[in-house]
Specification:
The protein is built from eight helices and 17 strands. By secondary structure, it is an alpha/beta fold. β1 and β2 form a beta hairpin. The radius of gyration is 23 Å and the shape is globular.
Amino acid sequence: MSFDLLKNMVSIPSFSREEEKVADYICRWLEEEALEYKRVGNNIILHKGCNIEGAPSILLNSHIDTVKPSPKYTFDPFNPPHTSDTIFGLGSNDAGGSVTAMLYTFKHFSKEDLPFSLGLILSAEEECSGEGGIASLSGYISENYDFAIIGEPTMMKGAIGERGLLVLDGKASGKSGHAARNEGINAIDIAIRDINRLQNFKFDKRSPSMGDIKLSVTQINAGTQHNVIPDTCTFVVDIRTTEQYSSAEIWEMLQSITESELTPRKLTNRSSATPQGHILLEALEINSIEKFISPTTSDWMKINIPAVKMGPGDSARSHQADEYIYIKEIEEGIRGYTSYINTLGDLIRNGKY
């Protein structure tokens, strides 16, 4: 099977909010494959209905946008080398492999008689949690689909939960002065004290199924020149949340222990989990698919239906220089998705949903 589709996709810059050209290309490919689609902004929707009354509807979803390339690439991320067994380039692994595998999987099932409806949404703005991505389709998804498979690089393991994300912008305020005269109040000192408080803060347990909340300070900035005490120091806190607390609760707790002002960028990037006893979990068991809790977020957090997350590729390669995916991983992804969906179909036929 040729994967020129993915090779061509990675050659087209498709940063978040700049996905128009790659969406254009995918739409042309769909037309060549005689697959009907609807485009909403830079989101692409495919749907195969079912004539069985009361039949459930399954959604496949992955994203077509990428982050900006790392400056450490050893080749042009949009004109990469390729080998007989590997596809290189920005977005090849995250999430071009899943996009490709899901497109071929949908094409396969588009010719089958199914006991369920099947949809595929290739979404924009996933990497920036943008409002023009899958969030703009949340109402459509809730009305038309019962559960979903989210395509991200998980080595085809099944993520049955994923952490949420809370980003806080910290601002320590002091008073400027001349460094030689030891004047002013150093905002860096305030920020350092607060960063230590944040890193040493212990959240109550509340029996989290996803493990402990993870907090990291990832950026810091202060000062204008060597001899001026800085009156402002800013820093960024990356928090991977669990079901223990809402983002608002975490923000309030951390603000109560710091002198710096903490401002959340968004309070809606919640954690997600597959409901216990759901057909999605039973199908994972039948297919002997390893289950895990994902430390990374995805479009799962933007939809209000049960889901699992799995796809070809390895999350460890995401957002790294010289990104790549093995062709055999995409082939295994297609087989894995096909088998998993067939299992869901068998369970539905047997009245398990």
